Amino acid sequence: MNRINKLFQEKKKGILSVYFTAGYPDLDDTVPVIQELVKNGVDLIEIGMPFSDPVADGPVIQHSSLVALQNGMSNRKLFEQLKDIRQTVDIPLILMGYINPVLQYGVEAFCQKCSEIGIDGLIIPGGESTTIGKLMVAYGFHERLVDLAREGMPVYGTCAGMILLAKEGEGMAQPILGIMGLAVKRNAFGRQVDSFETELSVPALGEEPFHAVFIRAPIIRSLGPKVSVFAMLPDGEVVGARQGNLLVTSFHPELTSDTRLHEYFMRMT
């Protein structure tokens, strides 16, 4: 059992996850920060890989990334710092950052280093689905992701991820994984300025409504026979679905403090 599964199995609520930027405030602070967080009872740590153009982040993370890069932080330096981390730290460690530095380092080499060090997960924030699809093909992700999903690996796609998993896309001509029985429409609610938040009924998460954030979101136009509705808007539009080990939502659960959806997905693993 991996460390993330073990954590969620042993601790059902009150899990404390903390994010910090590697190499901030000083270059060699990465490991001491991790050790201090562990000492103070943190359950899971997300280690930010600084990037020069963190446009999807707020000013705090933008500033910490800038300082870390000025300090000399890079993925190569980060791996050097973390090489012996498992001698003193047992909690789950997750790397979080943009795809660009991963591609620059080399995808296979990056994954190999993560495995050697004992990294438990990798978070790559979503983006524009056409670009993601082209990068998957260019760097050899596409076939491997399809194989892993068909072998039963749980996959959760939010927003652009929903588009990539779908078999069909209305008005789309782009690389997709095509492994989930969905037909979707991109930007179904309009442009960026039409983004919105609302309360959703998601029966699988309990009776309490789920606060959902929609940003240039897609929508599900039709469902295949093996796909079940996971979430709907009050007007009946489907914005979440599940097909076995595959889960998709039009909205971004990571932008709220409600962890129920992430916990639901962890249970799928």
Beta-strand share of residues? 15-25%
Structural class based on helices, strands and sheet pairing: alpha/beta
Number of helices: 10
Radius of gyration: 19 Å
The number of distinct structural domains comes to 2
For the record, the CATH class of the largest domain is Alpha Beta
Let me know the number of strands. 13
- Overall pLDDT metric: 88
**Major sheet: arrangement of strands:** 1-2-3-4
Q: Cα distance, first to last residue?
A: 10 Å
Low-confidence stretches: none
Sum up the overall morphology in one term: globular
Describe the sheet with the most strands: 4 strands, parallel
In helices, the fraction of residues equals 25-40%
Question: H/E order of the elements?
Answer: HEHEHHEHHEHHEHEEEEEEEEH
CATH architecture of the largest domain: 3-Layer(aba) Sandwich
CATH names the topology of the largest domain as Rossmann fold
Describe what you observe in this structure:
This protein is α/β, with parallel strands linked by helices and 269 residues long. It has two domains: 121 residues, TIM Barrel (Alpha-Beta Barrel); 140 residues, Class I glutamine amidotransferase (GATase) domain (Rossmann fold, 3-Layer(aba) Sandwich), CATH 3.40.50. 34% of the residues lie in helices and 23% in strands. The chain is built from ten helices and 13 strands. Strands 1-2-3-4 form a four-stranded parallel beta sheet. It has a four-stranded mixed beta sheet with strand order 5-13-12-11. Strand 12 and strand 13 form a beta hairpin. The chain is globular. It starts with a helix and ends with a helix. The model has no long low-confidence stretch (mean pLDDT 88).
